[in-house]
Write a structure and sequence with these properties.
Length: 829
């Protein structure tokens, strides 16, 4: 019997090989069979780009609205026009509403808990129902009083400290989102712990979601490398534990306030009411509540910053008309309101143009995934393709928006053939459209109206009184993008306008007291043993560290303690409770309980064995509340009483422990006794050998077949790319048969490598051909002239470049290129 069982195991090994490899082999064969029907695209794929949307736009210009890339095992489709995105993501939403696999952001960082990245399925449907119920049109109207009150605070801040306008925009956006979500407002964006920790979480999420940045997205097997050998993995796992701690603590606070009857209407309250109906766990609910923060804050604050940038660069072209409309409709004795917006078509056009001109979601938001094979305009799109619709390509498409880098609100007053009803695509498409679009667009429209009503916005002045120019292409990297720091002048239009702002501020301050921030933790400035008892029972403590300590002068002085922090762990604990039942390092020895004589409290810690940093370690209780603990690397953290203390475990505070989704406490070892006859032993060995051998052989054959096929494809693509890129290709010299089609080669304009000085720092590749200097008309320009470089690279359409990094010559936007390169000096004005 045992022989049969192990023989079956051997065959199961074979089937497991087949199950892993067959889908990939089938996908590769399907793509190969349809290779002539695939959308056009480049042979050479660039990865690790800091701003991939710039490259995507170049691809769309060169290959059309639908571009095919083979990024690792996943086919990728880049959509470069609003019509293509609408046709696929909206009209054919049933096929394009899923998500690709996000190993870094969705699995390692989020544990499958973020609905934004969830594939189409029951979890995502529950998540979408909650988000739409909390933020779509009808419900979003209930949040307008909060938006209006916070906007009045923003106007007051801009009036008194205009030089800090970026911080004021961030505070406004953060406070609206946190108030709407948790019923607690943000008074100071720099010191609010919820904003700070949420910001850290969103920064990490946007960093890991850049397409092609991490090789694990292309080679999923890298996910299983132990964290000790993969710093990139260990880093996101640590952030994951911090995220769980943050979201569960916020929901615990909401539950507590709701039980006391002090929780105002907010999204988290709506979640609690719907939890039982939807069958969502506490952790799913906590992550759902945290969903609005990243998109909401970045969209509102980034868009308003882009609006101010447009005011500095293009203000005289649109501000007078907008202010004339505001003065006519609103007057000068009150602020504009939501009720005024329908009568302010030009101001609303300014808001729409802001969302179009410099979209925050430059990559078009989170990519979609196709769940079935499809054909679009004769082009084959394979099942499982990643679909990216970068707004940088779509919103700057000359066919839909002539002179796309010009700020022209009039576009949205004219009749235009553009899919949808908004005239832009800032909030996405189809079933994956942004649930917070109504809240976000309302914030942008209202604050643009009030800024234009209240202030004169223009260029800042230097010491000589000259205008300080701004760079409209200087934007941040990442999944979302917003303007890099710039200077501008913000002054009240009149004393009357200033006095109205002051009056409105007083009323708003009083009304917002309902949402006054709840202070988390007490400011304990020193380590005092007499405060330990209060610290132990303080339900507002944020972090608990189980630390092992050694004497700074005498290494034999070993002890352990529990350290409490009112903020993320640092070198200043808010309270310490030493273990007093021995002079050894208890946590390192896996102590399960520790008695504190100072308080008569026993800290019970049911910890597992020490393992990899970030692993679930167990639970603890300090006599007042429960904690969930995770293994940490032994790193120095703080010192006191001639002792240096090192982290052993990090624990979070909550009313009930929340387990990590993908980890669990070490299971108890199961044992059973049985006897086997010599015959059974003999059969077992033969069955195991035969079964496992067959399984291994079958798997090896399949692996070899797939490897050979992939190697052939790679060799063929490389050979084609090399032939296309080789500057010594005799076809280019002779102009004989096979010469690539396109305009004349660049060296027919300038003989040999050289330098051509231009009179102005224009970004020439953004200009129409007829507006370029005659020497570079009909020449494709790669790279950008920006504040970081003084050169741009030129080459012709018919000689695609090869790129390499590391040489300090003309990095532009994409790196340096080989081939017939022509440099253009930038001459400063």
């Amino acid at each position: 019997m045992f022989a049969t069982i192990l023989a079956s195991i051997g065959f199961a090994v074979s089937l497991s090989y087949l199950s892993l490899i067959f889908p990939r082999l089938l996908q590769e064969w399907k793509i190969y069979a349809h290779r002539k029907e695939l959308p056009p695209g480049p042979k050479v794929i660039k990865s690790g780009l800091r701003k991939p949307w710039l490259w995507f736009r170049e691809l769309n210009k060169e290959y059309g609205d639908v571009v095919y890339l083979q990024m690792g095992p996943t086919p990728t489709i880049i959509l470069g026009s609003a019509q293509a995105a609408w046709d696929l993501l909206e009209k054919r939403g049933a096929k394009y509403s899923s998500r690709p696999r996000f190993i870094m952001g969705g699995e390692l960082l989020s544990g499958g808990m973020r609905g934004l990245m969830a594939p189409y399925g029951s979890f995502w449907r529950r998540w979408r129902k909650l988000l739409h119920g909390g933020f779509m049109n009808r419900q979003s109207l209930t949040y307008r009083p909060i938006q209006s009150l916070e906007s009045k605070i923003l106007m007051h801040d801009l009036l008194h400290t205009p030089e800090r306008f970026r911080k004021h925009l961030e505070r406004y956006a953060a406070s609206v989102i946190v108030t709407v979500t948790y019923g607690r407002r943000v008074g100071d964006v720099d010191n609010d712990i919820v904003v700070r920790r949420n910001g850290e979480s969103m920064d990490r999420l946007t960093q890991v979601n850049i397409p092609g940045k991490y090789k694990v997205e292309r080679y999923p097997a890298l996910k299983y490398i132990p964290s000790i050998f993969a710093p990139w993995k260990a880093e996101v796992l640590r952030q994951r534990q911090k995220d769980i701690q943050l979201y569960t603590e916020l929901m615990d606070e909401v539950k507590d306030r709701n039980a006391r009857g002090t929780l105002p209407t907010c999204f988290a309250k709506h979640l609690l009411e719907e939890q039982e109906n939807l069958g969502m766990s506490d952790l799913e609910l906590a992550y759902t509540a945290g969903s609005p923060f990243g998109a909401g804050v970045e969209t509102s604050a980034g868009s308003l910053a882009s609006f101010l940038l447009a005011c500095v660069k293009f203000g005289p072209q649109f501000i007078p008309r907008a202010q004339e409309e505001l003065d006519r409709v609103v007057g000068n004795d009150r602020l504009p309101t939501f009720e005024d917006l329908p009568q302010l078509p030009y101001v609303r056009a300014v808001a729409s143009e802001t969302l179009r001109w410099r979209p925050v979601a430059v990559l078009g938001g989170t990519p979609h995934a196709s769940t079935a094979d499809d054909v679009y305009k004769g082009m084959f799109i394979p099942k499982g393709s990643t679909i990216i619709a970068p707004l940088w390509s779509i919103h700057l498409n000359e066919s839909d928006f002539p002179e796309p880098n010009e700020f022209r609100p009039e576009r949205f007053l004219e009749e235009r053939d553009y899919p949808g009803t908004l005239g832009h695509s800032a909030f996405g498409w189809g079933r994956r459209i942004c649930p917070g679009m109504h809240l976000g667009s309302a914030s942008v429209e209202l604050n643009i109206a009030r800024i234009l009503w209240a202030f004169k916005v223009g260029p800042a002045k230097d010491a000589s009184g000259n205008d300080i120019d701004v760079d409209i292409f200087a934007f941040s990297d990442g999944f979302n993008s917003s303007p890099l720091p710039f200077q501008c002048s913000i002054q009240p239009r009149s004393q009357k306008h200033a006095s109205v702002i002051e009056q409105e501020f007083q009323g708003a301050t009083e009304s917002l007291k309902t949402y006054t921030p709840v202070e988390i933790g007490n400011d304990v400035n020193s380590v005092m043993h007499e405060l330990i008892h209060e610290t132990l029972k303080d339900k507002d403590i944020l972090n608990v560290i189980l630390a092992d300590c050694v004497g700074s002068q005498n290494s034999s002085q070993l002890s352990s303690e529990v350290a409490y922090f009112n903020s993320p762990p640092n070198d200043s604990p808010g309270g310490i409770a030493p273990v007093t039942d021995g002079q050894h390092r208890d946590w390192a020895d896996n102590t399960t309980s520790a008695y504190f004589t100072d308080t008569g409290t026993t800290f019970k810690a049911e910890l597992g064995k020490r393992g990899t940093s970030g692993d679930y370690a167990g639970v603890g209780n300090n006599g007042y509340t429960d904690f969930t603990c995770w293994q940490m690397d032994s790193e120095y953290l703080y010192s006191h009483d001639d002792k240096n203390c090192f982290v052993a475990y990090e624990c979070n505070h909550m009313t009930s422990p929340v387990p990590i989704p993908s980890a669990s406490p070490p299971a108890a070892t199961m044992s059973s006794s049985s006897t086997a006859t010599p015959e059974a032993d003999s059969g077992l060995s033969v069955g195991a050998i035969v079964g496992i051998s067959i399984g291994t052989a079958a798997g090896a054959i399949l692996i070899a077949a797939v490897a050979a096929f992939l190697i052939y494809r790679h060799w063929r693509a490389k050979k084609q790319a090399q032939a296309a890129n080789d500057p010594q290709d005799p076809r280019l010299e002779t102009g004989g048969p096979g010469t690539p089609k396109g305009p004349p080669l660049a060296n027919t304009i300038w003989q040999g490598p050289g330098v051509r000085e231009l009179e102005t720092p224009q970004v020439y590749h953004e200009l129409h051909n007829v507006n370029r200097p005659v020497e570079i008309q009909s020449v494709l320009i790669r790279g950008e002239l920006d504040g970081s470089t003084s050169r741009a690279e030129l080459h012709s359409y018919d000689l695609p470049p090869r790129y390499e990094f590391g040489t300090p010559i003309s990095p532009g936007a994409y790196g340096n290129q080989k081939g017939p390169v022509y440099h253009v000096n930038r001459v400063e004005e």
